[in-house]
Each structure stands twice: as structure tokens, then as C-alpha cells.
From TrEMBL, chain A:
Membrane topology annotation: Multi-pass membrane protein
Protein family according to the UniProt entry: Belongs to the binding-protein-dependent transport system permease family.
Protein name: Carbohydrate ABC transporter permease
Top-level taxon of the source organism: Bacteria
Key word Transmembrane present: yes
UniProt keyword terms in alphabetical order: Cell membrane, Membrane, Transmembrane, Transmembrane helix, Transport
Location(s), subcellular: Cell membrane
TrEMBL record, chain B:
Coiled-coil ranges per UniProt: none
Keyword Zinc-finger listed: no
BP-aspect Gene Ontology terms: transmembrane transport
Membrane topology category: Multi-pass membrane protein
Record bears the keyword Metal-binding: no
InterPro entries: MetI-like, MetI-like_sf, UgpAE/MalFG_permease
Key words, A-Z: Cell membrane, Membrane, Transmembrane, Transmembrane helix, Transport
Any one of the GO CC terms: plasma membrane
Compartment list: Cell membrane
Transmembrane region(s): 31-56, 95-116, 128-155, 175-199, 230-250, 284-306
PROSITE patterns hit by this protein: ABC_TM1 (PS50928)
Native organism: Flexivirga caeni
Protein name per its UniProtKB record: Sugar ABC transporter permease
Main location, first listed in the record: membrane
Amino acid sequence: MTTNAPANALDYNARSRAFKIFSAIVLAIFAIIWIIPLVFALDTSLKPEGEIAAHPTSWWSSHFSFHAYTEVVKGTPIMTWYLNSLIIAVLTVIITLVVCSMIGFALAQTRFSGRITVFGFVLAGLLIPGSILVLPLYQIVHEMHLLNTYWAMALPAVSAPVAVFIFESFFSGLPRELIEAARIDGASWFGIYWRVCLPLCRPAMAAVAIFTFVGSWNNFLWPLLCMSNVDQMTIPVGMATVAGGFGILYAQVMATAVLGALPLFVVFLLFQRHIVQGIAGTGIK
Amino acid sequence: MATTVIDDGLPVAVPDSGSPLRTQRSGENRAGWLLSAPFIVFYLIFLIGPALYGILMSFFNTTSVKSGLGAAVGLANYREVLTSSAFWGSMGHTLWFTVLTTPPLVILAFVFAILAERIRRGRALVRFIFFAPFVMPVTSVTMIFGWLFTAQIGLFPKWLSDIGISPPNFLGTTGWSFITVALLTVWWTVGFNFVLFLAGLQEIPTEVYEAAAIDGSTPRKTMWSITMPLLRPTIVLVTMLQILASLQIFNQMYLMTGGGPGTSTRPVMEFIYDYGFSDYRAGYAAAATMVYFVIVLVVSLVWFVLRRQTRKTVGA
């Protein structure tokens, strides 16, 4: 996506070429600053606790090992939290994809009466900063007797107007003739949505799926409120509850931090292109 | 779910019902509503519901320990919130955090994107390095920065000592706590803005730059007369999204300082948390939520208007 021009159009004289070298150097410096916290965290997590106590800021150890990781896995319910986070994130992604793509299709391709009203109504939701409303949301979820269940986490996340508009803009791009043709062939509206249009909007599905997954996995305040039971906690909240308990066992603290970040790093590595394009495509429009 | 209902009965063109066109119209109508219904239900319960219920609660002395609204207290909650120095103090902390984080997060991301646009190789790597922290859970970030900033034995205090500066108490004093949490936030989230700017830059056609080059434009002039004006919608977008995100600060502050020392760094979100959940004064906290909500809503509306305007000027 970046190699559209054989020569960079900005490279037209010696001064701009000098600027290019300057750019590379400045970026390299900042890139190093940016990875130092991650590398040092990883480095600390692999050192024996005794060595950290003696030389806390040393980068080198003669006894690198995964000891802290095995201790964390044995000593904390981190595996349960992984499972909880995964179940909640997958549930949220599936429901969001189905529900938001259906209304996205309806708004884009069917001309039902009240469509403009529904559109404006959902658009207004973009203005509502949902995270601020956790207190009344808590009361509602409490009244529904959903606290300490996966549903308390998954269901509220589905009401995402952004996801609706990602689908809406994607479905709007499909040619009207395609839908007309399917209608003439006798397909039902649901059939058109499910069998004709949905398979064509994989990029939108990928973008929504990844953002919903990352958002669900990293959500902190909401699970902190509605998951008070240790066995129901998600990774970010569970980690916060044990963080203080490690005391000066810094290798274990860092091992926990690394373990917490690991799954999404993998997701990010696998789907980097989708994530970046998703932000670019949805943020700009 | 509703999907099964939709699948079976939707006659396309029923021959015996007079006008097939009208049947088709009503079929389309029904399909549109049925496909929209599940989302509307979620939306009403989990987004509109809390907004309305929050307004309602703010007029009652609701507690979080008992269900139900409790007794009506009229405007007492609002009177207490609006005259509470603790509330306005926490509002001030949230605004101070927004002031501290928005300029670096917008400017650094912009500079990174401009620089990354110039280099030919390694752009993907740079993008990866700046964006990767953004996908980390907040707790991992605060654990790592807590360790890096630990007094005496942390990496940053040690570096400062090495170059002859006596390190400040990063998390022990109010002033430095804000800066520490702001630094962490810049490190954590700059990648998102960076990617938005990169995308904005890529929308600028190369021909414009080529034309400027042929006309003998200097790099600085190209920057000010071409890149900046064409990137204006992205700059507005990133700035407004950043202000909205910073205004909602809770997680990092809660985990790094717990609002301390004392309550001197406590953001509004944590004020609401403390009163609504720790003190069980849900009605009072709901009134605080509504005041805060209105302030954020005003910022959102400003963004909405600005966005429409920039769209119009770009379109024209």
C-alpha cells in the first residue's frame, strides 16, 4: 500500500534527500525509546529475583530463565482469566457481528419507512460517551441479575454505533443491481443479507471483529465493576488484583505483564494489516 | 433469535394480492425493521437506557446496595455536586490531564507520520513499534511503567542519576504523578493517532507534491501550503478524538496513583467510582455523572459541527 510511486515524490532535491536521512534518524531514535519499556520488562521477567534485588537496572544476567513465568502460572488463576477473557471476547465479537451487520444492511439496502429516523437515532449514539455511563449501566445490569456472568460483559458491548456505521458504509458500496437481481430470483431479504451481501463484506467484518475483540479484551473499568468474583475476572482486572501481592518479586510482576500482553500481540502480528486499514478506513470517514 | 423469523415468511411477489409492488414494499418494510430490531433492542437497553436511567437516578437518593431508586430528593444531588469542591477538584484533574496529554499525543503522532512518510524502507517496522503498545491491556502498561519509575531501583530514576539529575519522586508527588501518567499514556496510545495521520497523508495524491516540486516549492513551503491544509480534516479528527479520550481518563490514573497522593490526582471518573461504588451513593454519583456527561457531550457536539464544516470545505 505504500509503494505506489517508484520514487518518492517528496525526493526532488538534495535538501529533501537530506531531510529523508534526518527523518530516518529521528524515527530510529524514537523507535528505540518506544521499545525500551517492552524489552526491559521482558528482560526483567527472565532474570532471577535475587539478581534483580542486587542489580535492578542491569540488562544482563548469567541465569536467564522462565522461572518467573512458571511461578505466575502456578501461583495465580491467570489461566482462568485467559479463558474468561477469551470466552467474553468471542461472545462479544459474534453477537456484535450478527446484530450490527443486520442493521447495517437494513439501513444501507432496504428502504423501510422510518429508516431516516433509525439512522439519526443510531448516529446520535456516536455522541454518547458510553464509558462515562457505567454507573447507571451497572444499576441496569444489576437489576437484570447479570452481574458476575459473561453476559454482563458481552451484551452491553454490542450496542456499538461505530460498528453499525462501518457495516452501513460497506453495504452501501454494494451495487443496487446485485440486490435487484437477487430479488428477481426470489431471494428473501434475509437471504440477500446472509447469502449475497454478508460474504462480500469480509473486510468490514474483519475490522469490526478485531476492534471488538481488542476492545473487549482490554476493557478495564466495566469488568472491574461487574466481575467481583475472582473466577469470573478477565485478564486486565485479574492482573490488577494480584499486582500488589507480588511485593518486590519484580520478575513475577513483569512476567505477569508480559503474559497479559502476549495474546493481543499475537493477534496484532497476525492481523496487523487489517487493524491498520480498519483504523484508517473507519476513523477517517 | 429474530433471524429465524425473518428467514421464512417474506413473499417476494405474491400473485393474488392485487398490487405486487405494494406487497414488495411492505415486505421490504418488514425486513428492514426486523433486521434493525435486535440492534435497536441492545441500543435501547445498554446505551439509551443508562443515559435515561442516570438522569432519573440523579433525582433520587439511590444506593448501590439496595435495588430500586429510593426516595426522591429533587435537585439536592445536583446542588451538592455543583457546590462540592471535591467534584470540581476532580474535574480540574481530568482537564489538567487532558491539557497535558492532548498536545504531545497529537503533535508527536503528526511528526512521526510526516517523518515516516519520507522514509522508504522500514515504514512497516516503525508503524509496528509505535502501534504495538496500543494493543496492550492497561494493567500490563501500568505494571511495566510502575517498575520503570520505581524510586531508587527503577530504570528511569537510574538514568537520571547517571546524567547527574537527582530523580524526582515520580509517583509520590501530585505534580509528578500527573506527568508520569501522561508520559505512560503518550507511550501507550500515540500509535493510534499515528496510524490515523499516516492514513490521512496517504490520501493526499502524489501529483500535488510533484506539481509543487516542479514549481520549485521548498520542503517547508510544501509542508505549510500543501500538507497542512489537505490534512486539516485528519488534524481536527485526531485532536477531537484525543480530547474525548483524555477527558474519560480513569484506568491509568486508578492503577498508577489510585487518585493519590490523597485525592490530589483523582479524575472525575474515579470520583464517580468512589462515591457510587465505594460509598454506595449511586444517586449522588449519578448527578455527578450527568454534569460530567454534559461537559463531554458539548465537546462531542463541537467535534460533530467541526467535522461537518471540514467535510464541506474539502468537498467544495
